[in-house]
Amino acid sequence: MTERPDAPRPQRICKSLNGAEALSDPEKLRAELISGLPGGGLNIAYEAVDRHVTQGQGGATAIRWLGKGGERRELSYCDLADRSSRFAAVLHSHGLGKGDRVFCLMDRTPDLFAAALGTLRAGMVFTPLFSAFGPDPIRTRMEIGEANVLVTTASLYRRKIAPWRQQIPSLKLVLIEGDDAPEDCVALSPALDAANGGGEICRTGPEDTALIHFTSGTTGKPKGVIHVHKAVESHAVTGRVALDLQPGTVFWCTADPGWVTGTSYGILAPLVHRATLVVDEAEFDLDLWYNTLVREKVEVWYTAPTAIRMMMRAGEAAAKPYDFSRLRFLASVGEPLNPEAVVWSDRVFGRPFHDNWWQTETGGIMIANTRTMDIKPGSMGKPLPGIEAGVVERQDDGVRELKPGEVGELALRPGWPSMMRGYLHEEERYRKAFAGGWYLSGDLAMRDDEGYYWFVGRADDLIKSSGHLIGPFEVESALIEHPAVAEAAVIGLPDETAGEVVKAYVTLNHGYAPGEALEHDIRGHARKRLGPAVAPREITFRTSLPKTRSGKIMRRLLKARELGLPEGDISTLERDER
Ligand code: ATP
Ligand code: MG
């Protein structure tokens, strides 16, 4: 690939935290944080919960749950050990055992945590799904994953599962949250109350399967990604290095476990660190979220660009009444974080968002702006200690490594603990993800002279226009700098002379109305920022952009619609007002 046409001229934010201990030795951190099962073996649930109890720290608060209706419940590590061991006992009492697969379709209630950790504790395999999924996406995933158990609610069961339950032959048990269950199902609360807690933890080994996680489906049909118990070593190390989790840290991860972030960092990593996990069941609501940050005295906050852009859209004034001084570290993942958002958050929260990059496949954070380095707004940061990254170009007989400044595919040297062990039933696809000793991520990036990585776009989304390679992220970030633009999505459309031309879809900030004059003005701004070859030829105003449930813009869907092509797999699409 060619030189990046318009290399970034970043400004820096130098706010690295003082007194940071050496975080460069992942082996030392792993040894400090992960003990293994007494007597041998490795089980994520032990590292996340029971280890703290064994070490006399069971009284610490593990979960502070904030229910949708204003309810509030706290669970200590002892409570969580008790609930999860009872959950494991319930599974055993139904004849289930090691390797059986437990799917969860429910909101982020305390039962979800008992189910996740109880499943792992029993040596079974945990798969969370978004409760907002429709019946088809749920069914397909349960079929692909050969689900043996489903944990859900009565209402979700009746609406989404009951009509086809009998057609999933592997499904042996349906557990229903609460006291009452429809016929053929088992009510969870009385079963937990009757079960004996404190049973033995299954002696799993590091390579035993622990989790199957489905990807977001941004680029096509979601893949079932296999992760093993050893992954907890990555959760431990990255939780400290990339998110600054310490014992007692009040940590809020806004992601649902239906998205891998909500499992690796919404359940496992913070518990391994004996942090206190704030769990807010509610979806994004500006005042509610600001209130949660302040009232719960959140210290470390992990969220996604889509939420950050919604906060920006509401404006700085909306944040003024709140005192955010307890926040010490802010991190973002899932989509490129526009430089504008980093600078904005530094102003509003007194701390910049630290972007980091990873995938369902990598199981944990790979590249990050850590607390000990300067931030270059717009950059994903640097590979974490123990992670070797590169920018490569695929060739017939392997790959060629590219130099700093060149754009290519972001690649990683396999071998870290939370690397996927396979795509479920997709051997060939899995094999194709590796070449020349690298794992190829499918994302395009550029590394600068100082080793910082810059996201360019997904390989599928790259635009080729008049000899230029254009990453949508760069164009979208420039558009967002315009005061009227809240969010932007950019695609390439076929063009006879240029090959492709850039088309943008934008949503507007409050107080701006779509119109020709505004379009003209935004185009002018983009041309000035990017040059005429890269700036969008056409801009369409929309009230929202199509996104996955994990908050990722589905550019391929915009393109398919524009070209009148089939929409492809849209099982993860959130509501979409055009
Ligand atoms: P699918 O693989 O099914 O198309 P997906 O790739 O969106 O879906 P995830 O594993 O949830 O599924 O997301 C990982 C992807 O999200 C990355 O490959 C990358 O494209 C994007 N991503 C994650 N973090 C960042 C980041 N900090 N900056 C830019 N992109 C990011
Ligand atoms: Mg992907």
From TrEMBL:
Catalytic EC class: ligase
Single GO MF descriptor: ATP binding
Classification via Pfam families: AMP-binding, AMP-binding_C
AMP-binding enzyme C-terminal domain boundaries: 474-552
PANTHER family with a match to the protein in the record: ACETYL-COENZYME A SYNTHETASE, ACETYL-COENZYME A SYNTHETASE 1
BP-aspect Gene Ontology terms: acetyl-CoA biosynthetic process
Species classification: Bacteria, Pseudomonadati, Pseudomonadota, Alphaproteobacteria, Rhodobacterales
Protein's recorded name: acetate--CoA ligase
Domain of life, source organism: Bacteria
UniProt keyword terms in alphabetical order: Acetylation, ATP-binding, Ligase, Nucleotide-binding
Gene3D superfamilies xrefs: 3.30.300.30, N-terminal domain of ligase-like
This enzyme's EC code(s): 6.2.1.1
Record-annotated AMP-dependent synthetase/ligase domain positions: 54-424
SUPFAM superfamilies cross-referenced by the UniProt entry: Acetyl-CoA synthetase-like
Gene Ontology annotations for the cellular component aspect, listed alphabetically: cytosol
